Structure formats: structure tokens, C-alpha cells
Target: Phosphatidate cytidylyltransferase
Amino acid sequence: MSIALSLAILAASLAALMGMIALVRKLGQRFGWSAEVQRKSVHVAIGIYALALPLLFDARWPVVVLLLVALGLMLFLRTPASRAAGLGAAIHSVERKSAGDIWLALAIGFVFLHAGSSYILYALPIAVIALSDAAAALTGSSYGRRRFAVEDGVKSWEGVIAFFAVTWILAMVMLLLLTDVPRPNVVVLGVTIAAFGAVVEAVSWRGLDNLFVPVCVHFFLAGYLGASPTVLIGLAAIFFASMLAIALLTPRLGLSVHASRAFVIAIFFFIGVGGLYGTVLPLLVIAAHLVARRRRPCRSPHGDLDFIATLCATGLIWYFVGESVGPTAINLYNLGLAGVLLGYLLIAAQCEWRWTMPAFAIVLGLYLALVAVGPAYARWVIWLPWIAAGSLALVAVALLARRGWTERWRAPRLAALASVVPMTAYLAQAVTR
Model:
């Protein structure tokens, strides 16, 4: 496809997006649609269009450009003037803190880039978030009676059931049409995807289901598309047993029910993306967070959920960078997590000087041990210990110099601080390759 044709399709796509939002806004005003119906109508339309992206473009760059422009448009629609009476009223008139439109665009881009030539790995996750999520929201808002709390809002079990049913149907239909998976496997795989996706959607907050659901379904499908029914049933049993175990431990850990479920989802997410090797440090960071929150609580209203979102987002950012730039990022990603681990250990120790060197030595030794037994690469064997020491030293010095810096927004601040040196080192070695 020529560049001129790609640009023409890009322009037509953006014009169609603006026209669709304007049409939904006009129909909503004329027929008295609720804000939720207008928002979900736009959501479904964007999702359905996104399904055609691999068919419209034969290269990645037009999709990346389209999504970047769409993100800019979404930010414009959040301006006060647009939210009050402009096109933004069609998707932002629901009074709640949500960045669902931003997360949806990022999810489409991530899944598109990572799916490669496998259409099912892209299409099914996008179809689920476009159709199942809308069915859950509209069912819950219209018929929801049995409700449960999520952060500062509520969801309904009727909505969860609707999400499960629509996802199961979508999964079976698309697996039958787009893959050669045996029919018995299709049924079991469809049920497992629907159950897993429904739980992820149920524990998501602030519109993060638009990111978590497609990404989690994508990685689950990529890992288990060819799995036997026995493996899938065993996986489902482990998952729900973990949900039950964490529910029983919730009172002792001081977690909310919502946060406890989100922790299980996060753990399975890391297992699915990074395997056992890539899950060691996330598990240790989770444990350190649970200790730190008891010894020195964070003043953010939803510290546990902010922690989970930050941990998962950090993993996705590193995964995306590693896949896009070229050289594997696993060692430097783990270094970033090691810095977060050190940060939580120091916070749990009240940032006292006497605990700094022991914690520094333990985390540095643990990190270097993981490098030694994992996929270490010769290019980094000589310099990696020094880079690791410098990165961890930066975290320690920053926390000791400003002890109250992590009282609010603890997880995002620690993750940003711990990623400065690893990300700089990674991008530097990528440029000099």
C-alpha cells in the first residue's frame, strides 16, 4: 500500500470518528439517551472499527499515527468546553473519574503491535472489550440489583454475568471461524476466557477495564490457544482456588475484597506474560508493599489499587519497549522492579539509615543472582552490576533525603524513580547497537 493511500485512509478514519461522535451526540439529544448509553455507543463503534485495522493497513506506522492522533482528540474532548456542550459530552458526561477512552486507545495499539500476523490474537480481545463490556455496563445500569463495591463506585453481578455470556459466545464463534482449534477445546477455551475476562472486568476501576481486559485476554489467548482441555481446566481450578485463598486471607492482610481480587489477577497476569522467571520480583514487590502498608500506610485514598495499576503498567511499558525497540529488556525491567522492591523495604523500615545498607546489599545480590540464572546477555555482563548499584543507590538516596515524598502516590513515584537509570541504560544501548 502506498504512503498516499495510507494517509488518505487515515484522514477518512479520523473524519469518520468525529462524525460518529457527533451523530451519537445528536441522536442522544433527540431520543433522550442517557449519558451511559451515549458513551457505550461510541465505545462499541470505536471497537468495531478497530477490528478492521489489520485489514485496512499492511504496515504498522499508519495505525500508530492514527492512535496517536486519536489520543490527542480524546484529550481535546476532555476540555471543559467540549465536555459541557461539544462532542466531548457524548463520552464524558458520566460524572466519574475515568480515563477509559485513553486506556482503550492504548490497549488497541498494544494488542495490535503485539499480535503480529495472528488476527485472532488481536480480534478477540478487541471484540470482547467492545461488545462484552458494553453489554455488562448497560445490563448493570438497567437491571443491576445485586451490587458490589469497586473503589469509589459499584458494579453489579448481573453485569458480570452479561459480560461472561457475551464473551463466551464471541470466543466460540471467533475461535471456530478464525482458528483450527478442535471443537471440544473451543468450548472449554471459550468458557475459560469468558470467566477470566469477567473477573478482570469486575475488579477493574477508573475505566482500566478498557486496558486490562483486552491485554489480559490477549496474553491468555497467546499462551493457551493450543492448550488441551485438561490444562485449561487445571488452570481455571488454580485461578479460582487462588481467589478463594486470598479471600480467606483478606482480613489478616488488611485488604479490601476488591483489592484482594485485583492482586490475584495481577499475579496471573505476570505469570502469563513473563513466566515463572518474570514473576519472582513482582511477587517480592507485592510482599514488600503489603509489609510497608502496615508499617507506614500511604495517605492516598486507594493505595492498594494504585499499586496494582502501577505494577501492571510498568510491566506493560517495559514489555512494549522491549518488543518495539529490539533488544530484550528483561534484565533492565527486573532492575527497575528491584529498585521498587528496595524502596518498599526502606519505607517498611521507616527509612532509617541503619537498615539502608543491609537492604541495599540484599536487593542487589538478589538481582544479580536472578541475572546469573536467567537469560543474561554478554553485552551487559561487565557493566550491569555497576548500573544496578547506581540505580539502587539513586532510589535509596532519594528516599532518605525526602522521607515524606512517598506519603502520597507512593507506587507511581517509586516506579518512576526506579526506572530512570534502567530505562536510560536500555535506550542508550539500543541506540548504540
Q: What stands out?
A: The beta strands are 147-150, 153-156. The longest strand covers residues 147-150. The chain has a mean pLDDT of 83. Residues 276-433 form one domain.
